[in-house]
Amino acid sequence: MIEFTPPEAPPFNASCAVEPAYRLLDHYTSYRTDVTVDGVQHENVVLFDFLKTLKTHPNYPAARSRFLKNIEGVLEREGGKLEWLERDL
Known about the structure:
Blueprint: E1 2-4, H1 20-29, E2 32-37, E3 40-46, H2 47-52, H3 60-77, H4 83-86
Antiparallel strand pairs: 1-2, 2-3
C-alpha cells in the first residue's frame, strides 16, 4: 500500500504568473509530504521523485494515477499538459 496526501493547488493565483503552467509544474514536482509504503513512513519526501522510485511496487499504478488525477484539472486549466508529468512518472 502506498499512502500520501496528494498535492493541492498552490497558494498563489497562477493567472498572475508569467508562465503559470511552468510555475504549477514546479509546484507539483517539488511538493513535499509524508509517504507510507507498506506501513513504513518516509517523512517529508518530494512526492514526485519518491513515486518514481516505487515503479516496481504492486500499488504503483494506483498511486501514480491518484497523483496525476489530483493535479490534472488545475494544470490543464492554466495551459499545461498532464503528459509533461506522465512521461517522467
